[in-house]
Structure formats: C-alpha cells, structure tokens
Amino acid sequence: MIQGFKEFVLRGNVIDLAVAVVIGAAFTGIVNAIVTGLINPLIALIFRADSLNDLVWSIPNIRGGETDFGWGMIIGAIINFIAVAVVVYFVFVYPLNRAKERAAAKAGIAAEEASSLPTEQELLLQIRDLLAKDSSKA
Predict the structure, then answer these.
(1) Half-sphere exposure of residue 30: CA atoms within 13 angstroms, side-chain side
(2) DSSP helix/strand/coil, 138
C-alpha cells in the first residue's frame, strides 16, 4: 500500500500539478498588486471609483431600498483571470512547448536511425523460428 502511494506521489503529473499550484498562488499576489496599483487607478480616472469593487449598479427593490449589483467585481475577476493566464502562458507554457519541440526534433533524428533496426517483436520471432528449426533437426 505504501509502495503504491509512493509511486502515485512521485509520478511526473502529480509533481507538475503541485508546482503549478504553488506558482499559481505566487502569481495571485503579483496580479493583485497589478490590479491594485495599475488597474484600479485607471478605473478611478475613468469611472470616478476607487476600485473595481466600488463599481455597482443600484436598482430600487420592492422594499423601498436599493439592491446593488457589483459588476465591477466581475470585471475585476475577469481581468485577474486574463492577467494570470497571459503570464502563465508566456512565462511557462510557451517556453516549455518550445523546449519540447526542440527535444522532439532531436529525438526524431534518433528515432529515424532506430527505425532501421528490427523491433523487439521481430527479434523474438526470429529467435523462435531459429529454435524451432534447431528442435526439428534433433
């Protein structure tokens, strides 16, 4: 049971996922700082609001008060998502894909050379046939 757990934890996918979670958490701080320091001041210039969270749409309700719809929070979440996606793509995904393409191109040359060699199955069939020939002579 412990061996199975050890194999599960040491799989490449699990380790990649753990790294992605840690990196994602680190980028959250960066993206929040960008939104607070750059996006919110731009919003304040355009909409006369201090942050995206202050952008609301107030509608009178049936009780005589007002109901606020925080459309600014939705826009802020979309901006955060797009910012994180752009950074993750251009910092991690794109360079890793390029590295994989280069490695595949190098491996492709080696694969072409190896393709001229017989496969394991072909070798085993040849061995079987030779053993069958020898046993029929005896």
Answers:
(1) 12
(2) coil
| CATH number, domain containing residue 86 | 1.10.1200.120
The CA angle 108-88-52, to the nearest 5 degrees, is: 160
Residue type, 1: M
Binned average pLDDT, 10 residues per bin, the chain of 138 residues: 73 73 80 78 75 79 84 81 79 84 77 68 88 80
Residues 80/32, Cβ–Cβ less than 8 Å:
yes
Question: Looking at residue 109, what is its pLDDT?
Answer: 64
Alpha helices in the chain (DSSP H): 2-9, 12-34, 40-47, 71-88, 94-115, 120-137
Alpha carbon 33 to chain centroid, angstroms: 22
Please tell me the total count of domains within the chain. 1
Residue entry with tokens 């609001």 = 49
Task: Determine the structural domain holding residue 77 and report its residue range.
Answer: 2-137
